[in-house]
Each structure stands twice: as C-alpha cells, then as structure tokens.
C-alpha cells in the first residue's frame, strides 16, 4: 500500500483496539483531495438543491451523482481518518479507491456536461441561473479533483514501482 497514509508505519492498531485518528492522513495528497471533494461536492448538490431542480430532469441526474459521491467520499474519508482500513486489511484498499475515483470521475464528467448544458441564460429566475452556473463550475472542479485522485490511487495501487502483491503479503505476514 505504498503511497497511502500510514503505509510506511508499522501497524500499531491491532484488530481489537479502538480506532485512532491519523493526523498524517489530513496532510497527505489523498486526504487533501478527499477533503476538497467533500467540500466541492457539498457545494454542487447544495447549489442545485437551492433551485427549482425538480422542474428539470437533467438536474435530477446531477443531484444523484453529487449526493451519491459526496456520501461515499465522506465514508472513505472517515475510514482513512480513523484508520479503519487497517482493520480490514484483506480488502485491497488501493484498488478499491482507484476504481471508486475512476467511476466518480466518469460520472462527474456526465454530471458536469449535463449541468452545463441545462443552464439557460434566459431563465426567468435570475438566482436559479446563478446557482446552476456556479454548480456547473464546481462540478467541473470536483471532476478534476476526482481525476487527480484517480492518478494518485493508480500510483498507490501499482506500488510506485514495487510489486503490489508482495508488498501486501509482507505487510500483513
């Protein structure tokens, strides 16, 4: 699990011990990106929710994507922050995180394009236009953060040049 927070440290948490906070996770690229994704995702769905999105079917998709990945990102963030991923060492976390980030990137691309295409500058409600345009911008930025996370997750999964299969065996033996 090279590249992930806590990978270089010895496993201090035993399976029966309570979870502890991992302060280094917040300073890692993965932690910073997850924090940014949580804030940006919150902005996307709250801006859309503040409009009359139910009148336009396209915004239903944007709401689904942004809320779904916001909740999952918060779950992953808490999992890594509390070092719960070390309790479930049999799960290939770098691979799971890479697939999650790749799927989030692709679906956020569709949400961004849908949101941007559905913004109507001649809207009769000016505040809806402003919020939808801002949601489109933040959906694009969120998509970029998920793409960067996919890159870092891929590097962690590949082990930065080492054999990922042997590194997991030696860590947990």
Keywords:
transmembrane, mainly alpha, structural constituent of myelin sheath, transmembrane helix, Marvel, 173 residues, MAL
What does it look like?
There is one protein chain. With 173 residues, the chain is mainly α. It has a domain at 31-51 and 59-91. It is 69% helix and 0% strand. It has six helices and no strands. It has helices at 23-27, 29-49, 57-81, 93-118, 126-158, 164-172. The two termini are 14 Å apart. The model is unreliable at 6-12 and 161-167 (pLDDT under 50).
Total beta strand runs = 0
- SSE class: mainly alpha
Biggest sheet details: none
Rg result? 19 Å
* C-alpha end-to-end distance: 14 Å
How would you state the average pLDDT, rounded?
82
List segments where confidence is low: pLDDT < 50 over at least 5 consecutive residues.
6-12, 161-167
Q: If helices are DSSP runs of H or I spanning 4 or more residues, what is the number of helices?
A: 6
Strand content: under 5%
Q: What proportion of the residues is helical, as a percent range?
A: 55-70%
Helix-strand string: HHHHHH
Principal-axis shape: elongated
- For this entry, what is the oligomeric state of its chains? single chain
Keywords: Cell membrane, Membrane, Transmembrane, Transmembrane helix
Family: Belongs to the MAL family.
GO biological process, one term: myelination
GO molecular function, one term: structural constituent of myelin sheath
């Amino acid at each position: 699990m090279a590249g992930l927070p806590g990978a270089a440290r010895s496993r201090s948490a035993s399976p029966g011990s309570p979870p502890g906070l991992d302060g280094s996770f917040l300073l890692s690229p993965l932690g910073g990106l997850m924090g940014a994704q949580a804030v940006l995702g919150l902005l996307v769905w709250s801006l859309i929710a503040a409009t009359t999105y139910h009148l336009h079917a396209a915004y239903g998709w944007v709401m689904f994507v942004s809320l779904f990945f916001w909740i999952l990102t918060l779950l992953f963030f808490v999992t890594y922050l509390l070092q719960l991923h070390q309790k479930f060492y049999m799960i290939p976390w770098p691979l799971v995180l890479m697939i999650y980030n790749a799927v989030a990137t692709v679906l956020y691309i569709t949400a961004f394009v849908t949101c941007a295409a559905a913004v109507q500058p001649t809207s009769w409600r000016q505040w809806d236009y402003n919020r939808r345009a801002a949601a489109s911008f933040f959906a694009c930025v969120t998509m970029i953060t998920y793409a960067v996370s996919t890159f870092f997750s891929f590097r962690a999964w590949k082990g930065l040049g080492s054999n990922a299969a042997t590194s997991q065996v030696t860590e947990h033996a």
